[in-house]
Design brief:
The protein is an alpha/beta fold. The chain has a seven-stranded parallel β-sheet, sandwiched between helices. The longest helix has 16 residues.
Length: about 170
């Protein structure tokens, strides 16, 4: 686990099995803009340690502003965060997902983590099978396409969650 942060952040993002380093770079930039304290890269998600030059194209320096860590197995990370009292929210289209605007964040700015997954498969069966996710949220789609780009969806959800959480 790599991290340059010594205290647990109140707002974290978990990026699980995202393939594109350009998406990861955009996530770093969006996370910085939204005030995220920690980004966790899990599974095979690339990052500043694997593709620094490619990441820099979309992160535009945000990789130096936001603390980040790497944990291979998402279940290990979810268990650790839950032990530390973190509310874990999954941004995923499932039968149990609710409209992201209807989700009530933890009270008084309590610690929370938002997890996003692979560009095609989403968070994935293994990560979803953990009973450690407190809420499932989704962004309603009005057009013909079934989903948004992972970095765009994260930005939309982060801004709504932080608006209501602060």
């Amino acid at each position: 686990m790599k991290s340059n942060r010594h205290t647990p952040p109140k707002l974290s993002v978990i990026v699980h099995d995202v393939r594109s380093i350009l998406n990861v770079g955009a996530i770093f930039r969006t996370a910085d803009a939204a005030g995220v304290g920690m980004i966790w890269l899990t599974g095979y998600t690339p990052g500043p340690d694997t593709h620094p030059d490619k990441l820099a194209k979309t992160a535009l320096g945000a990789q130096s502003c936001v603390s980040w860590g790497r944990v291979r197995r998402v279940g290990d990370l979810l268990r650790k965060l839950k032990r530390n009292g973190m509310t874990i929210i999954a941004l995923e289209q499932t039968k149990k997902s609710i409209d992201y605007r209807a989700f009530n964040p933890p009270p008084a700015g309590g610690p929370m983590a938002l997890i996003v997954g692979n560009e095609v498969k989403g968070i994935g069966i293994k990560a979803m099978s953990h009973n450690l996710i407190d809420a499932w949220i989704e962004i309603p789609m009005r057009g013909e396409k079934e989903s948004l780009n992972v970095a765009v969806a994260l930005g939309i959800a982060l801004y709504e969650l932080t608006r209501r959480w602060n």
